[in-house]
Here is the input.
Amino acid sequence: MTFSKAFFDLQLQFAQNVVRLSGLPLAQVLLDYTNLYVRFGLGRAFDRDHPVWLQYLAGLQHTDDIDAWTYPFFLTRQCDVPPPSIVATFGCFSYALSTDGYIRLHFQNAEATGRSPLDIECLAARMEELRSLFQHVDCAQPAMLRVAGVSWLYNIPAYRRLFPPSYLASVRVAGPRFRNLPLWGQFLDRHGAVRQGMVAPFLARLSCQTDMDDIARCFPLQALAVEAPVSDFQDFYESQRVV
Here is the structure.
């Protein structure tokens, strides 16, 4: 995915509003309330003293237009940023092992036909990818007992239909995810352009904020957390299998 300048501009606009509402320094807000650190390819340690991060902040001191500085800086750093600790990938899905003992699912657009990866025409392919993924888990990670995920995508029926009922029944609003694409990704189409229909309500809510109490509610969709036993996934995909 090629991220557009508008995606960065939107995050910077949000950050400037957080500065206005919180009184926090801009450098801290950019680290804690945007996805910039990850997009610059710096990992997920969020080390405020990382030399590349410091280089970015130094450039802010010499410009009155942070939008004009940020996107060209990103282009010099542009690289694929895989989710952490990926074990295996099957089409649009991959999984990682978390330190808290869960299988963590990740999704990306790897649909080769040019269709949306969540189109009904792609449903069988996505289900087969997930069936293969959980066969791999069964063979390679037999001690792992539960699956967890966090994403705005769990708000979307076309995504939800890919998962077992017990997983969906566990849904809850996740904690703050301002640093992460599982929240910011809702503003992107599959080509990396900003969905203008999502931006307008976001900015309207943001302009009405008078404090930080409900800042997360400005986002049209919340990041949702889900979890269920591995066995529920294995049973579900085998039951859906077309022979």
In short: The beta strands are 86-90, 93-97, 102-107, 146-151, 172-173, 224-229.
